Each structure stands twice: as C-alpha cells, then as structure tokens.
Amino acid sequence: MRNVERMSTVSVDERAISEAKELRDQFQRFLREYEFGMREVETKISILRDEFTHHHAYNPIEHVKSRVKTPDSIVEKIARKGIEEPDFARIREEITDIAGVRVTCSFIADVYRLFDLLTAQDDITVRVVKDYIANPKPNGYKSLHVILEVPVFLSTGALSVPVEVQFRTIAMDFWASLEHKIYYKFSNQVPAHLVESLTDAADAAAELDLRMERLHREAHGVPQRQLAPPPPRVVGV
Questions:
Q1: CB neighbours of residue 218 within 10 Å
Q2: Mode of pairing for the β-strands spanning 99-105 and 125-131
Q3: 3-state DSSP: the chain helix, strand, coil percent, rounded to 5?
Q4: Residue 213 to residue 207: CA distance in whole angstroms
C-alpha cells in the first residue's frame, strides 16, 4: 500500500513539474515574440540614424534604449488592470507596452520628425498616439508615446507584434529619469514639496528645450517654420 501511495505521489509531482515547465516554455516563447518585434523597430531606427549620420549634416537621434517587460512586471500590470483569468491572448490584447523602445532626440522638432519618418513606413501600423508634449501630464511629464504594430516573420508565418515607442528630448528624458527615481525612493508616496519641485523642474526643462532649439535654429540659419513640430496623427486614446 505504501509503495502504491509513493508511486502515486511521484506521478503527481512529475505531472506538476511537466506542466510548470510547459507553462514556462510558453511564456518564454510569448516574450520572445515581443523581443523580435522590438528588434524590428530598433533596426528601423538604426537605419534612420545611420542615414542621418552619413548623408545629412545633422543627426536628430541622440540615443536609443529598449526593453521587454519581465514576467514579474507583466504579472503586476495584470493585477493593476484587474484582468481576470488571463491567458496569452488576453494579455496580448490588454497590455500593449510589453516591448518598449525609447528614442531620445535633441529637440522637440526632431521628435515629431522621427515620428513621421518611422510611422510613414509601409509595414508599420499605428495603433495609438498619446502626445504628452502638446498635452503634458499634470505632473509636468512630457513625451510622445506611440503604440506600433510591426510584422515579425517566423518559421510558422507572419505575426503582428505591438511595440511602444517613446520619443523624448534630452531634457524630457533627464526629468523623467529623475522623477522615476524619486517616486521609487518614496514608494510612490512623494512628499508634496518634492512634487511641487518636480513640476517646477518640468517647466524649467520645457523652457530649456525652447531655448536650445532657438539657438540651434539661429546657428544653422533654419527658418522657424521648418522646425515647428507638426501635430501627429492621433489614433486611439
């Protein structure tokens, strides 16, 4: 009887381990699709940057960062959004920033110019545009957020993958980095005087952007109308 119980326990344990490994493998395949989509966007931006470097007098791209959310981060977002009984299809539908690329530019006009160049490509589909430059968040946050869909060609066929791309100036990126560190330090319970100081700093960063763009325009003799940012095509909310 004890041998039977022992064999049954071993069988259950092996089945549980096998199911856990299969779930892990599925999750890794799921995240890898987003990694591939992120690489596609990175390649497109890299080509633009190289073209500007070798064929134009000015390169608007300062630097590029990218990341795929960790499993823990995805689970936390599932909880925050209140997604019940999530499966991979539901996660794909509800969470569109699993893959993210951040493009830092010199000037505000560069942000909109790169947005237009990237989204004009035939294989890019624009799903959502959130222009926090034209309409900053209450805390002063500024950035142009875009959810794109890019095709990834696998051995099983083509797959459309959403990728969030954030366009910022150097000043916006510096401010956002500092704000994130402060909120992390205080576990999102930031003292009121620091929140006020952050808002003031956002205003100062915005003024710096305008001053530096004016200097750039005057130094290169570029008319203002050529550097004025066009409104992005807004898709979604």
A1: 10
A2: unpaired
A3: 55, 20, 25
A4: 10
CA distance 21 to 15: 10
Amino acid at position 33, single letter = E
In tens, the pLDDT along 5-34 reads 555 555 657 877 877 788 788 889 999 999
Return the active site residues. Answer: 164
- To which residue do tokens 């499966």 refer? 87
Rounded Cα distance between 41 and 8, Å, is 50
pLDDT tens, position by position, 32-85: 999 999 999 999 999 999 999 898 878 899 999 999 999 899 989 998 888 888
Radius of gyration, alpha carbons of the chain: 23
Q: Report which DSSP code applies to 234.
A: P
Q: Tokens at residue 211, please?
A: 């001053």
β 99-105/157-169 pair status: parallel
Name the residue type at position 98.
I
Residue 130 near residue 113 (C-beta atoms within 8 A) = no
If we measure between CA atoms, which residue out of 178, 167, 41 comes closest to residue 113?
Answer: 167
Yes or no: is domain 28-170+223-227 CATH 3.30.460.10? yes
Q: What is the pLDDT of residue 194?
A: 84
Residue 144: its H or E element: strand 144-154
CA distance 139 to 152: 37
What the block records as the tokens of 210 is 């305008």
Start-to-end C-alpha separation, the chain: 64
